[in-house]
Amino acid sequence: MRYLALLAALSMPLVAWLTTRGAFGPDTGDMSDRYPTLLAAAGYAFAIWGLIFLLDVAYGLWQVFRQSRPRRDPALPAATAGFVLTAAWMPVFSLGWFVAAWVIIVAALACVLYGAISLSQSRRAWPGQMAFAWLPLSLHAGWLSLAAFLNTAQLIVAHGWLSIVVQLPWSIVLLAGAAALLMLSNRAMRGNLAYVAAAVWGLIAMYVKQSGTSMEGASVTAVSALVLAAALVAQYAWLRRSRYATRIGEAA
């Protein structure tokens, strides 16, 4: 499984490079632009994938070469599956198979988020866990937690399942769903800085994108994204403060 995790991690940047070269059709950015939504983020936000891929490869290498091993690593199978699904999403989305792409990204989110939560709730960390396991999976999960809802909006627009002209009502519902997932997950992880940072990065990029578009309702979703980003930061600070207070109380 350790070697499979490394291969899965390496597959993501490789497939991403092939996608940008047009191996599967239009790249993901061009495909996204064909179906504008009120939940779209500015293009620069997707540069975070470079950091995510780098850290995930480091995770795979760490799994292969680390000497100390716990008896059971619950995050490893989930992370491996999440990497494979993330790689699979890119060509499927480029091919315009939006329903399949949505299923894949939700499954990838479930896998990586499970791994991040497992590591965050672990009471005993083994050497290198924070830098080479917790950080990559938390960042990956944070980005996918928001990206899954962006993908959902594009799926709705691509198939015309809801109004394309008046997108604000259902976009707010999706944003509320994203808020619930992000805040509940952050709470389950007792305040996860990497997870919150990835989500806030995307939410600010959504604010930038929607502030510069003339679509009806864009200003509302822009402000809503900014409010959610602030709420996540505030929740993280509160959770960390509560955790610190608990430790002080136990030590007293």
UniProtKB/TrEMBL annotation:
It comes from the Bacteria. The chain crosses the membrane at residues 38-62, 74-93, 99-119, 131-150, 156-184, 191-208, 220-239. Keywords: Membrane, Transmembrane, Transmembrane helix. This is Tryptophan-rich sensory protein. It comes from Lysobacter arvi.
